[in-house]
Amino acid sequence: MGKFKTSVTAVAVVMALGACSGQPSSESQTMAETPVASAQSAKYENVLLQEFKGPYGGVPAFDQMQLEDLKPALEKAMALQLEEIEAIANNPDAPTFENTIVEMERAGAELDRVFTYYGIWSSNKSSPEFRKIQAEMSPKLSAFFTKITQNEKLFERVKSVYESDALKSLTDEEQRITWMIYNNFARNGATLDGEAKKRYAEINNELATLHTKFANNVLADEENYVTYITEDQLDGLPQSFINAIKTDDGKYAIANTRSSMDPFLTYSTNRELREKVWSTYYNRGDNADEFDNNELIKQILTLRDERVELLGYEDYATWRLEDRMAKTPENAMDLMMKVWPAAIARVEEEVADMQAIADKEGADITIQPWDYRFYAEKVRKAKYDLDSNEVKQYLQLDKLREAMFYVAGRLFDFNFTPVEEGKVPVFHPDVKVWEVTDKATGEHIGLWYLDPFARQGKRSGAWATTYRSYTTFDGKKTVLSSNNSNFVKGAEGEPTLISWDDAETYFHEFGHALHFLASDVEYPTSHSGVRDYTEFQSQLLERWLTTDEVIDQYLVHYETGEPIPDELVKKIKKASTFNEGFKTTEYLASAIMDLKYHTTDPAKIDPDTFEREELKKLDMPEEVVMRHRSPHFGHVFSGEGYAAAYYGYMWAEVLTADASEAFAEAPGGFYDEEVGDRLVKYLFSVRNAMDPAEAYRKFRGRDAKVEALMRDRGFPLPEESQSDSDSE
Description:
This protein is mainly alpha-helical. The protein has helices at residues 10-17, 35-41, 70-89, 97-106, 109-124, 128-149, 152-162, 172-187, 194-224, 239-245, 258-267, 271-282, 294-310, 316-321, 329-360, 372-384, 388-392, 397-412, 500-517, 531-541, 548-554, 566-574, 580-597, 607-617, 634-637, 648-665, 673-684, 692-700, 706-713, and strands at 227-229, 252-254, 414-418, 432-438, 444-453, 463-468, 479-487. Residues 1-21 form the signal peptide.
């Protein structure tokens, strides 16, 4: 993420997505603290403000972070950046790229560093004490970012550079970041006057508070609603899962997270308990108590709508998508509605298969949402003779990590070497660190941090972030990347075994990390993502999990060490589109609802009723629920990164399926050197320094087409001609 952060993106920033500035590093400096870092660090007693010190161009002092330092660090860092902004805005010299845009890129180094620590507290080790600070500081941070966006002198200087003849003499990247910075101002209230500008700032403050409260309510429900079961209620559960959920006092705890809920619903033979665990999970934020989010949703939608009206937009989604690949809500919805009919038709087939098995077994039930995973597993066994638990025995977390390193070595020429424990500070004993180097030259590329396991205070799901991004405009800064997951840790002395879906997620998030590590751009703003494109690279990397090279070398039995049998591999590949109706429908339901929320007058929305009625209009299958129901849809309501943009995963999936076919058609398959070189050059290294549509065309030679996605999921192609259904 670039140094210029608008008020609208403030909440996303404080959720640990901000990039950090570090000291210039060279091969000779990576292993020792630099004198420059020592001198600059002496300016601040507060460690959260200090330059990163130590090896590898400097690293965050995670071992020294103290929560009492956070609030004063944020306040000091904001003050420092405002001083820098005022100096830029009031520069008596005529505006130029160097004295305006470059200086803005340089500003805010201290705040970027504080956000690195803020993000760890927010996502990896939250606590009631932190959440109190977060609630207090979120509106202040929003006001701070709004103050920058509404700095009229600063905007006039940016506008002057953007409209100058000199712009044409700049590099392509410099022209693009100038446009992005100007566009950020123009789209976020800089052109407003008087009362409208004041109200815009007030709305941002109110939204910051509501977003934070929404997220904390979901986290509270995840922490407060744990389902404890007894030994006589373990029937059907794999032993590895039983070992993982056993508590120190001999109980068995089903945490209210997807990583616990999913396997329990897949294997437990206790239907009553399955319903309880399902209900507990899908009712997060919807329990009519102090943590209920329904009223917050309405408030958030109302404020977002009012804010974009001030800018002259019809609705929030129109404003949001204007600078995305989709361009308009209609284009995004059109893509999803091409896929939706095939998805729900497939669900009908899947449910029929499940009901047939339930009837044959004399279960005397009608398939319900809490039965879907359980009977889908039975269908998988019956139809494909494929047992997910059998597959799991070959999916060891450590071996899959080695597989990811192998893929990174083949495609990117990266080498991953474990960093000696204690050499680089970490924020939890589970976190491990690797140095990434160029295989051919040995050049230091960066570090990769891994925080794989679920624990109290850690938000659910999986995500990737950076603690420092690659830039060269102000001295070379190397990458500090991080992957974070919520796998259920194996029992003491046993490997952590994960499902096939979790293995795909592991590769997915590593794709984000490779996107960070492979970057070759000059400026921080070039790291700001286009949301319906940023998931593409990570989704694409999932495809290497099923390559023969990975399967043959890294999928080995956790007890015997024997490679996964060819027969089992054939079953996995044969079943590759199994349950695709469920997966596509639960995702699309969330993405479609997101757009509907942001294209409908909020005055007409009661969230609980709106969700139910709109899904009914779509003929949503009763046996499937939204992947993220509205009251816990954190992507959309705990910040604005994915608001009116959750469709982006599907948009990126079109690119992914199309790009996968490019590899499949190549002589060297998924490890073809020529296609791999184009992959790195146009799809990974450029970040947002090039228009994504142009970058994809350079890789593929044309725009991506939706037919590839339909083929990939085993869906029938839409009847209409595909010549007008390109994703770009």
